[in-house]
Design brief:
It contains 13 helices and 16 strands. With 459 residues, it is α+β, with helices and mostly antiparallel strands. The longest helix has 39 residues.
Length: 459
């Protein structure tokens, strides 16, 4: 029996039903619209990280996006040469540096005895890193010496963290170890930290629980490698450039009238916000850091696949034949995967993801794992980053230029069709509150200014 002096308790949030509010158009012919208001008991929408954390949720997301994990041997023949070059990590250090009779060896031992011990240990476990057939001039020798010194510093930091007995977070590993040699390795390309990436549009409209899972519009990888904008500016700068030609074409311009995210300016970059100057942006690689736990490796791979799928879908929308590389960093270990997009017989784009198994091929473990505690492995990872950087600024850029040129000419001739690839906000849900990704707020549609500010329209 309720207390006579106390007001009745309100209904529990779980027992409340969503309220329905109807609006009827004032003009003749307008249909009435019923909107379901969210209540305290309604489920909020998920972030990309939350989707990736749950295997069932990710499989639902991947099924709607036509994303499939395959074997490394399934790599298309036209991409095999690029992938082989990127994962070629042999013959990177002159063997003469470790020869006691070599002048360089004597100089290096005098300059940095710890570095020479580090290289000796690396050669013991991975002799293919060294070769007697390569030589460098004075400037190249100095540059490589400085690079290897940086890598050894990262390795020494990791060893000190292991020996301390303390517990370390994902951010601790990134700040003290990973970023010491990740950022210096990317020189010819653009290295971006936690840049929000737009997720692709699902192939079919989800219903039920899938709506919450397909709701995330963006993901935030920890690192991204992009082509330098200055090297492809001519693709969008002039009046007759491919960018302006495509943007003005009636079959593409019609999408701008339906939704802002459908405009070619938003669709020509994998980022959630286009650059201040209308132009193309292309990403060649995304990297994901996770906490030191075994299950976090799978989580990181699934989450990174969401970012690489976006980059691959963008390449396919412009009919560019190339791939995207993904790296997973957790607890001082690194794994890699290669993603690409092709169309099936129904012209539906499918994104394939192949874990890199190492030299053992498909007969060994699904993933080859580099352990950064070993000098040979951390050197291999550094040279892998250098390969991605060089490939991005050369071969990948060539694929971009050739693909954009052929696609723009095909659209003008009527031989090619264009379809926006970015996820829009067409799926109306009862709750629009979205979880945060990597504790970074997700921005809405806007245009990046040159100094990192947001350009807003005047009132």
């Amino acid at each position: 029996m309720a207390h006579p002096y106390l007001p009745p308790s309100p209904a529990s949030p779980r027992s409340r039903k969503p309220k329905k509010v109807s609006f009827r158009g004032s003009s003749p012919g307008c249909e009435s619209v019923t909107i379901t208001q969210a209540t305290a008991g309604s489920s909020r929408c998920m972030s990309a990280s939350e989707v990736a954390r749950n295997v069932k949720h990710f499989e639902t997301w991947a099924a709607h996006q036509a994303c499939e994990q395959v074997a490394f041997s399934d790599l298309p023949e036209e991409l095999a040469a690029d992938v082989t070059d990127v994962f070629n990590l042999s013959a990177r250090i002159p063997a003469a540096w470790l020869d006691d009779n070599s002048p360089n060896s004597q100089n290096f031992k005098a300059l940095s005895p710890p570095l020479m011990e580090f290289l000796q240990s690396a050669r013991t476990f991975c002799p293919e890193l060294f070769s007697s057939l390569i030589t460098y001039d004075t400037l190249e020798t100095q540059e490589l010496f400085e690079e290897l010194t940086t890598v050894r510093l990262a390795w020494h930091r990791l060893r000190s963290m292991r020996q301390s007995g303390e517990r370390w977070s994902e951010a601790d590993y990134a700040a003290n170890v990973y970023n010491l040699f990740r950022s210096p390795a990317i020189r010819r390309s653009t290295y971006r930290y936690q840049c929000p990436i737009s997720l692709p549009e699902p192939h079919e409209r989800p219903s039920g629980e899938a709506q919450r899972i397909l709701h995330p519009k963006s993901a935030i990888p920890d690192c991204g490698v992009f082509i330098k904008s200055s090297t492809i500016r001519y693709l969008s700068h002039s009046l007759k450039s491919p960018y302006k030609t495509l943007n003005a074409h009636p079959e593409i311009a019609k999408y701008s009238r339906t939704r802002l995210e459908h405009s070619f300016r938003f669709q020509s970059t994998p980022c959630t916000q286009p650059p201040a100057t209308a132009s193309f942006e292309f990403a060649s690689s995304f990297w994901e850091d996770k906490k030191p736990a075994y299950e976090q490796l799978d989580h990181a791979y699934r989450q990174n696949r969401m970012s690489t799928a976006a980059a691959a879908r963008m390449l396919y929308s412009l009919r560019i034949s190339s791939c995207v590389f993904g790296l997973i960093w957790a607890d001082g270990t690194v794994q890699a995967h290669v993603d690409w997009c092709t169309a099936d017989e129904r012209h539906c784009p499918t994104v394939f993801s192949a874990p890199y198994p190492g030299t053992s091929g498909d007969l060994g473990p699904i993933f080859h794992e580099w352990n950064l505690d070993r000098p040979s492995d951390i050197l291999q990872v550094y040279f892998l980053l250098r390969n991605i950087d060089i490939w991005t600024s050369t071969t990948f850029r060539e694929h971009i230029v050739a693909g954009i040129d052929a696609f723009s000419k095909g659209v003008l001739r009527g031989n090619q069709s264009y379809q926006p690839w970015k996820r829009t906000n067409d799926m109306r849900l009862s709750v629009v509150t979205e979880g945060k990704e990597n504790n970074v707020p997700l921005p809405g549609p806007s245009i990046r200014a040159s100094r990192g500010r947001t350009m807003r329209r005047g009132r």
